[in-house]
Amino acid sequence: xxxxxxxxxxxxxxxxxxxxxxxxxxxxxxxxxxxxxxxxxxxxxxxxxxxxxxxxxxxxxxxxxxxxxxxxxxxxxxxxxxxxxxxxxxxxxxxxxxxxxxxxxxxxxxxxxxxxxxxxxxxxxxxxxxxxxxxxxxxxxxxxxxxxxxxxxxxxxxxxxxxxxxxxxxxxxxxxxxxxxxxxxxxxxxxxxxxxxxxxxxxxxxxxxxxxxxxxxxxxxxxxxxxxxxxxxxxxxxxxxxxxxxxxxxxxxxxxxxxxxxxxxxxxxxxxxxxxxxxxxxxxxxxxxxxxxxxxxxxxxxxxxxxxxxxxxxxxxxxxxxxxxxxxxxxxxxxxxxxxxxxxxxxxxxxxxxxxxxxxxxxxxxxxxxxxxxxxxxxxxxxxxxxxxxxxxxxxxxxxxxxxxxxxxxxxxxxxxxxxxxxxxxxxxxxxxxxxxxxxxxxxxxxxxxxxxxxxxxxxxxxxxxxxxxxxxxxxxxxxxxxxxxxxxxx
Length: 491
Description:
This protein is mainly α. The chain folds into two domains: 5-337, no CATH class; 367-487, no CATH class. Helix content is 57%, strand content 5%. A four-stranded mixed β-sheet has the order 1-2-4-3. The longest helix is centred in the N-terminal third of the chain and has 25 residues, at 52-76. It starts with 14 loop residues before the first helix and ends with a helix.
């Protein structure tokens, strides 16, 4: 929290944060491209005023909670003070964990649920109390309500249980009750999906069909795991993985096998590089125990504090050196220069996004300026036109920006058919006059009687796709409610 608190208001709203705020304004049991919990968190931010600090305090708290959970998990795995320190320090300094806990997305909360679920199983082993399966199920269900990819974590851990002596529990009622509890918690989202013909599956198919995400080969996939967690933290999490796999009597082997299954699944499915990030805090917790035990056994290090101090100091220095590339500490030009100076360039995860900054930063610039330019175009309409005009945004970032910053300019809520905005519909607009963002003249001329270039937005640090023309479309040839199904954009 000491790291994140001063930075809560830096840069601007991330594209996805703007969308989640809209989801918070339309609370539901599901959304096209994500699970429902993030909408509830966004609603909390709106109740606090909807400012950037009120939004980002939630991921910052999740990040702090994850550090605490890693420390506790390391302790429960048998680690002493140094093991706990090393586990917490590794989670704190992991670049991807720092980044995830600085932006309000599902990714900030996902590792919290997974580490908590792992802790429940560790307590199960410690106490032989089957009721810990209920805690595991509750956290698994809540994790699914946060992000659907939790299903891969649960499947991987289940495989670890089946392939190790932990499978003896399958002959009792407790794991099945835990699974039932997880399903019960997740059921509202399943019902929501079923009532709408599973839009999330359609969305995922579209993503695969258009080749949206960067596909990595074996070497790059492994290399980016090392880079995202920080190269100097490789000995910590790798030692943790080996310690879990080789633990005495196979006590913790189910977690090690779970990670191997999880890794294999994600590689086979061409997952984004950061999708594996929520599992690493578990490995860091085990890595702290492994390093503590190794230093205690070594002749040159046994009973000496010096090697521990050196190890912790080196990790701290290396982590702090990379932190400015994953936290909004520097102005954009300095961020780029610093990244080049230390040789750190964040890898791309999507094919189509271009800009001077990495996407996670570029998507935080230009939104207020875009809305101000839309307002200038809007005010250029006649009063009669404004009375019946709508603003159509072609992606949820634009729509969210208009809905957040637009009221101060007197703008109406945005219309959009992108992702869950599609379900919110045209809201009675006929489309007779539309201010349209991110479209081509040719595409609009096929649908409108007249098309006018009324404005142009450009921001030096924003994403290239947002730097474009703002159009006024008059005389939509097909009424908007009738045209709406054709505008659906799930990708």
